[in-house]
Amino acid sequence: MRLSIVLGPHGQVQDLRDGTVAVEGCELEFADVKRMPDAYREMARRQPYDICEMAPTSYLMAKAAGAPITALPIPMTRRFRHAGVRTRPGSGIGHPKDLEGRRVGVRAYAVTAAVWTRGIYAEEYGLDLGKVTWLTQEEENVPGTTLPPNVQRVESLADLADRGELDAAFAGLAGADLGDELIPDAREREREWFQRTGVYPLHGVIVIREELCHLAQALFEAFTRAKENYLARAATTSEDLRYRALGELVGDPLPYGLKQNATSLAALVRYAHRQGLIPGEPPIERVFLEEDR
What we know:
five-stranded mixed β-sheet; D-Maltodextrin-Binding Protein, domain 2; 2 domains; 293 residues; 12 strands; alpha/beta
């Protein structure tokens, strides 16, 4: 069986790309895309690929809207998200709660990194998300998405930043990066938060078309073998120092499986619901396939 697949350039899938690890009974045909967010959008809207990495928030939204896709509990990247919001010099913002009444730029409201950060700021720092004006410049991946009334689409966040009309913005926006990190001691706060909650933010899950659910176990086994090979290489080389550093805190820096990710997946579902992106908080077993191990 030939399966079309789109994956980001992650070290843990390199062995799948070059054929070192195969999916039993399948031949993977890799498709190239210019930007992974474009693949997320296409998978949410018309499912042109058999297998696709997808932003987990976009997946939850697409699933809730009836898209015929299902995700495997195979997160592709992990990163803590206390950091990543920068403030305008002279804004007087020194604490997440100070964002209330301010204008904050983000590429799109449902970007998973922003969902994580907003959720953390709300639960850990008492930020009322409804009192922030969230300014976006890109369309959401799931068509027909109804966003909270305090989300506004603008032409260019960079132009607003140039005019001093952005109080804060998520890092990485072209031309709209501002001043200092909102939480300067984010690394210490992240360590304490993980040790207390067990939540390890995930980005990118593997999504398949529903008619291929019978291949879930074979895919899980292949992805796991490729990851184990990668981690073995990374342990003795400089292939990915970031995951080696994360491993000192979390153990396995790239845990796969529903049980291993239950706490983190449940937190993301909770955040997505509370931020108005999905209508309820479905049990994770209803939206992620459990591997048969």
